[in-house]
Amino acid sequence: MMTGSKNYKIISPSNWIDYELIDSGNFEKLERFGNYILSRPEPQAIWEKSLSESNWEKKYNAKFILDIQNSNGEKGHWIKKKDMPDSWNINYNYKNLSIKFNIKFNSFKHIGIFPEQADNWNFIYDSIVKNYEKDYKVLNLFAYTGGATLAAKAAGANVYHVDSVKSVINWANENMLSNNLQDIHWVVEDAFKFVQREVKRKNIYNGIILDPPAFGRGPNGEKWILEKQLNQIICECSKLLKHKNSFFILNLYSLGLSPLISENIINNYFPDKDIETGEVFFSDNFSKKLPLGTFARFFV
What we know:
Largest sheet: 8 strands, mixed
CATH class: Alpha Beta
Radius of gyration: 19 Å
CATH architecture: 3-Layer(aba) Sandwich
Helix content: 10-25%
Order of helices and strands: EEEEHEEEEHEHEHEHEEEHEHEE
Number of domains: 1
Number of strands: 17
Strand content: 25-35%
Distance between the termini: 29 Å
């Protein structure tokens, strides 16, 4: 018996040249970003590595080590080999879309890009280019360093980029300048509070993108807990999205959350929409498929 959405898909982005998943296993992943290879923790890679530990260590230019005393499992430090720069650029291309990303190290394992989101960038770009209208407005919530923002802006949209971390907004602004783009609206604010205010202001958007973490803090200490607030924020977002010529995207990274959860919530507030749901993954060079989150999206 079939369950879930008739539009369920398992997607692996196929337009990458500057990204490659080389190997995965033993709770780690070995990735190439442009000319450099990184070793990072990966909680879903519970299988064995295909490469030996010695081969793995020979290949990487930098490795992220989690701090044992850190309780949240994210903070740590990088071990860099000789000639490994602190920052560099990679590019992504799709049709007439060309995006440059500034890659950097910090005290967390993330480096400013989620390559698995490339298929959503394609979806955003196509949705805007094919259905463009004057002042096509896009709201990107929990927007991080702005891959989706850049795709929307490059397609001609008027983009509002919302994140609670000022340093991340600055990083996104650097990406904008590197791509010779301008006039993105930067909003350093708690995403839920911003959405509530936009509802009161009766603002409307052609596109809404949500990429929420499992846990987070707003600039004034506001607490975000995904399971408790996801339903509420989608309810509010349903009041902001235009009824025609619009799109909606929800990404979830939390372990154990089925895409059926996203489908159920979206169906409740956006009834009768043709919702596409599924998982995103990359295959490493040994054909092991690494799951990297779920998505739900539609265009009307």
